[in-house]
Design goal:
alpha+beta; 5 strands; single chain; about 240 residues
Amino acid sequence: MSKTKAELQEDLKTAHQKVDALDHEVRRLKRSIGQMSLDLQAAVAGHQPLERTVYPTERALEAIKRAEVEWARNVTEPEYKGDYQRITAYIKSQDGLGWTWESDYTKNGQFSWCGAFVAFAYGRALHAALRKKVLPSCYRLWDQWGRSARLRDGEKPQPGDIVVVYTDETHKPIQGNHITLCVGEPNELGLFPTIEGNAHGMGPEGRIEGVIKRERDVDSIAHIYRLLPEDFEER
């Protein structure tokens, strides 16, 4: 029996989704292979073994520690009766995004603040321009860093990495859906621990929506961004 128009349209939609997913994976593999090629060329040219960065770096440890402190404050969306006023600091203070023109945060959904939380975790050690102009959204991250040395797609996420994940299987834009701070390497099941803002998960007093801890599947990763030494203020 021939398919209806609606069924054909659904089949076409599914086919497009599969093509998009394959195209995305091919791009990730090409970037990973390209980075490996550059590393090998540099090693051969210098006649020296490849350097291996030790993770977590000092800057990453500092960011993770700040994120842990914020998690312990029980920062929640207003309806959970936690320290929701703290979210305003992530968005407006000079330790966070520095978006001083925004209204104080009083209502769930008023501002997508997952990137603001990561900006606050790195704080003033990270150049203000990056916190203010790059970290506010998944799109800004991809637009500014998607073709830079910070992009580490295809690698294992490392503590301190800014990991953008997909949270909606039906809507997977190239830039991803949600910004997280990786706080540990993936385990044998492919799950890596995060501390996140503007998400559902475990707070210090139970399950909440706010600043939470959870594990993400590596298969949910859209992009991995690893900060460069020049991204930080000199001490």
